[in-house]
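HUMAN: You are asked to prepare a plain-text protein record giving the amino acid sequence and the backbone structure tokens, both parts labelled.

ASSISTANT:
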Amino acid sequence: MLNHNPKLDLLFQALADPGRRGMVERLSLGPASVSELAQPLDMTLSAVVQHLAVLEASGIVRSEKLGRVRTCRIEPEAFSLVELWVNERRTNWERKLDRLGEFLAATPQDEGGKS
């Protein structure tokens, strides 16, 4: 049975939407106000705020309000859980492919390419 990690689920759900990934890409360049994030997107400011709420709930983005401006910034540590999950899978598949390569190298081949 697969390990179920609700935090990991939130991270993948947050990154599943192309608009949210675009916001994350923009924030990877540095902090931005909500209106700056909304400017290149083809959605209402209300929709941008809803997307940001999903990113904040997942821990990917943090925001703070100073006066009338809400500034958002990326939380790089949030990606460590995704990175760990991906690396575990990569390591597992690399081991399997290495074993397959060893097996195929040790298997005699006839002239027709059949074993």
Observations:
- Residues 6 and 65 are 28 Å apart (CA to CA).
- The first strand starts at residue 32 and ends at 33.
